[in-house]
Amino acid sequence: MIVILKQNAPKQKVEDLLGQLKGKGIGIHFSEGAHTTLFGLVGDVSKIDQEALEALDIVEAVKRVSEPYKLVNRKFHPEDTAVQVGGGKIGGGSFGVIAGPCSVESPEQIIGAAKRMKEAGAKFLRGGAFKPRTSPYAFRGLKAEGIELLLEAKRETGLPIVTELTSLRYIDLYSEVDVIQVGARNMQNFEMLSELGHCDKPILLKRGLSSTMEELLMSAEYIVSGGNPNVILCERGIRTFETATRNTLDISAIPLLKQKSHLPVIVDPSHASGIAALVPVLAKTAVVAGADGLMVEVHPNPPAALCDGAQSITPDTFDQVMEDVRTLCGLEGKAL
Questions:
Q1: Are 240 and 249 in contact (CB under 8 A)?
Q2: What is the dihedral of CA 250, 221, 175, 116, to 10 degrees?
Q3: Which residues of the chain have pLDDT under 70?
Q4: What's phi and psi for 96, nearest 5 deg?
Q5: What whole-number distance in Å separates Cα of residue 84 and Cα of residue 60?
Q6: Is 275 in contact with 245 (CB distance < 8 Å)?
Q7: Do 322 and 95 meet the contact criterion of CB atoms below 8 Å apart?
Q8: DSSP per-residue codes, 242-310
Q9: What integer pLDDT is reported at residue 215 of this predicted model?
Q10: 11 burial level (CB within 10 Å; 0-12, 13-18, 19+)
Q11: Are strands 179-182 and 161-164 parallel, antiparallel or unpaired?
Q12: 62 phi and psi, to 5 degrees?
């Protein structure tokens, strides 16, 4: 249920109403925008008399929310959410680019990549320390050593780091990580999502391989309902009948998610196609569709990559992608 307040409602009356609602055991999500102030009521709202609320002189309207996701719903929070990470921001009119290799392989590789990413204009460094792989024989990451190498790259360049958490038993290793990524395979790991709702770090939540948009938003609801509002949604392609590409990029998800939710939406064109040659055009398409950012896999030598070399672009190609992104964002020759 949403309670929309009248403009210039007296502060004391607003506080009195808040106290009455909380006294009924209702959770309150308070949202104050440029033109609208509202309460989002979460919990058992069957005990709330809608007509009595509507009769109050400070109340403009009362609406019921039919969608199962409440806190991530744009109806609860009309203004776009911007997630601040270090000196960078994603959402709320700020376009953020996360770039780097699929996996951390060596100090030279990750630090060298970080320097090139920063020179090109990326605001965040990505790199996998723990890698969930379909085959138990594939390279599964340097684990704790990989985290240390990412932190070293951060010290060298100042770029905030984004890396995937594959299991809660490793959570203590992520104390200095700036953004925790929840991968597609863990999108519905509800124990993990609930725990991340209690942390103070931004969470990058990737859409599951065969998940609907509502399922993605419900997973985000787990995190936000735990008290962590800093969630970034990531469209990374879904599994369809098509086999020409690794996945199928759902471009329609970008405007639809932004219509349904206030959370920022970014796109991973690397996993979406699995083909490096398609990454630049998919990246540009995502910008035009209204994405708040990109997450791109870049490797200094893709053929020698230990993980996902086929979908990784070179630093030189990434330079061109960034030029194209700046042009599409109307920032030609300027920093994003």
A1: no
A2: 20
A3: 333
A4: -120, 135
A5: 32
A6: yes
A7: no
A8: --SSSSB--TTHHHHHHHHBSS-EEE-HHHHHS-GGGHHHHHHHHHHTT-SEEEEEB-SSGGG-SS-GG
A9: 98
A10: exposed
A11: parallel
A12: -130, 130
Separation between Cα atoms, residue 65 and residue 38, nearest integer Å: 13
Angle at the Cα of 184 (from 310 to 191), degrees rounded to 5? 150
Residue 93 makes CB contacts below 8 A (sequence gap 6+) with: 80, 82
Q: Tell the residue number behind the tokens 């960034």, with chain if given.
A: 322
Q: How far apart are CA 238 and CA 271, in angstroms?
A: 9
Considering the entire predicted model, what is its pTM? Answer: 0.92
Q: 């190498």: which residue's tokens?
A: 149
Are 172 and 147 spatial neighbours (Cβ–Cβ below 8 Å)? no
Cα torsion 186, 149, 267, 292: sign: positive
Residue 251: count of CB within 10 angstroms of its CB: 18
Q: What is the pLDDT of residue 333?
A: 67
